[in-house]
Amino acid sequence: MRVDVDRDLCEANEVCAGFAPAVFELDDEDELVVKHPEVPEDEVERVTQAVASCPRNALLIRD
């Protein structure tokens, strides 16, 4: 499983980081960083919740 961010849609509001802080964080310029684009097995459920909860639908799951 891979997760990507659509930079045109992302507002960097940190909802995703709240669900999966091991995968998502904001950098010093308040830009979303996907620390693990290839999602670790133990983070799949949290990342799936983060994607579903993104208010701008800026996160995409790819197989």
Description:
It is a single chain. By secondary structure, the chain is an alpha+beta fold. It is built from 2 helices and 4 strands, in the order βαββαβ. The strands form 2 sheets. It has a two-stranded antiparallel sheet with strand order 1-4. The protein has a two-stranded antiparallel ribbon with strand order 2-3. A hairpin with a 5-residue loop joins β2 and β3 (32-34). The model has no long low-confidence stretch (mean pLDDT 97).
Cα-based radius of gyration, to the nearest Å? 10 Å
Task: Tell the overall outline.
Answer: globular
Strand order of the largest sheet: 1-4
Structural class: alpha+beta
- Average pLDDT confidence is 97
Q: Helix amount, in percent?
A: 10-25%
Oligomer: single chain
Instruction: Report low-confidence residues grouped into runs of 5 or more.
Output: none
Distance between the termini: 5 Å
Q: Summarize the biggest pleated sheet.
A: 2 strands, antiparallel
Strand content is 15-25%
Count of helices? 2
- State the order of secondary-structure elements, H for helix, E for strand: EHEEHE
* Number of E-state strands: 4
Concise summary:
The protein is of the alpha+beta class and 63 residues long. It is 24% helix and 22% strand. The chain contains two helices and four strands, in the order βαββαβ.
